[in-house]
Amino acid sequence: MRILAVDDDPLILELLSQCMLTFGQHELTTAESGPEALALLNDNNAPLFDCFMLDIQMPAMDGMELARCIRKISRYQDTPIVMLTAMSEKRYIDGAFSAGATDYVTKPFDIVELKTRMSVVEKIATSKRASSEKVFDATTFEGQPEVDPDYVSL
What we know:
Layout: E1 2-6, H1 10-23, E2 27-31, H2 34-41, E3 51-54, H3 63-71, E4 81-85, H4 90-99, E5 103-106, H5 111-139
Parallel strand pairs: 1-2, 1-3, 3-4, 4-5
Helix pairs in contact: 2-3
């Protein structure tokens, strides 16, 4: 799973990098700000991401604003967004889900709990990918003449 983690704390980004190595086959890309993350998302050479992990409290652009920006990008409208933040008050949790978050984990986080939540996110991402592939397969036949099942050509 390709994950973009955005946090202004380099120690958290390093911890997440280490966690993802132990969690399985994940490719983690990191950004230290919302604008840096958006630059990655707008880079045509950057890989498509299967999941986002966002801190809320960051300078320049907070995680909720970044989540809203991500949701405006058509290919990421339903990509899982996990808020990973020290903000535990209800107004932040409600705001994060209103902005498009899929899950919410508070810092300091438990490694086992994060692994479990990432397993759920991976299932969502895998399901999304499978649905996208089916849609893509179906669109390759658009515009093709309809075949009459009673007609047999020898």
